[in-house]
Design goal:
Order of helices and strands: HHHEEEEEHHEHEHHHEHHEH
Radius of gyration: 26 Å
Amino acid sequence: MDDSMPDAARLSPRAMRFALAAVIIVPAFLAFVTAEIYVRVKSPFDDLWALTGRSVSSRPIADWAFLDAFAAFRGKPGTYPAGTAVKTVNREGFISTPEITPAKPPNTVRIVFLGESSTAGTGTLLPDSITWPWQAADLLRQRPGRKARIEFINAAMGGYTTFESYGRLWSRLRFFSPDIVVVFHAWNEMYYFRRVDKIAEWRTLPDGSWGLESAVPVTVYAPRWYDWLIRPSQLLTKARLRLSGPLNGEASAGVFRRALEEDYDHRALEIFRTNLRLMKATTDLIGAQLLVGKQPTLIVPGLPERERQRCRYDLHGMSHDAHVSAFREIYRVIDEETPTNRVIDVTPLSGVPENFYDHVHPTPLGAQRTARIVADAIEPWVEAIEARSAAAPGT
């Protein structure tokens, strides 16, 4: 045997195959592990079993909410980390809100934000300071010549409609002496747009009792046999979700999930109108200024199909066009019931994909843009309050 031959040449074919596999497999495995760690640190956790309807969400409502006697439910005080996002609920049950007491300090303007998950920064979680109410308050504090202290309460909750927001306003928030109340509702109103005849049963359970609704499975993505293999990996799970596309109720790869209605019960608009009037009457009674926002949405006429697949039309059982109509009619009611200088029109952000994770939940960029529009609209009212305070005797 020639001792001068390279060591590799002396390896058996079997050993050669093992050596080659080690050169390829080990770096690939290390790269996969590195990518897996990065995804788990940088991205929110995706529960594949909950997303495919095999189980309920890992965070049912009872984990983060208490029953409320007048507003269905309210936040359970605590800290709720989810991936890189951290949500807090203060001692008073207000989400993404600094600690606050009912007694309002002197020379303070208090702003209350009423709304749903897009205001609370849930749905797709936003950290506290990224929610648009938090950012709007910061922008108001930074205005040149600001004389008053700005405090805010994010009284929104995921799942709220104007029913729950009104209940929270008259029963809880009035004791915090708000100066300005901002109402920001549209998407969740549509949950009763096809059940007007049963509206007297709103928030009751099937047996007529009252309580936190039981969590039920929701199939966002069609189950696949290989989910059992990829479920332990967040990297593979996210790749699977990106490649397969959600079942959005309208179409997914050309396959309809269920038939959607092309219209809705237009009597629902009068329910929304009356709820706005009740809020106006309440704010008048407690001496607060009521502003009403037009919630922006990805759902606009002519939305491309690839963007429609991000929208959960099936939650309301209504088609894309029916949603477009419902939003338009909600905006019309707002205009009819609210003086122009009290309307906060955020709809210039509508239909811009980079502003939304889905149908209404804002991305950080969308939240930032919303905050600017809202702060600009609130500013004249804060200035008016400051001016009255400065002119008051003894100031």
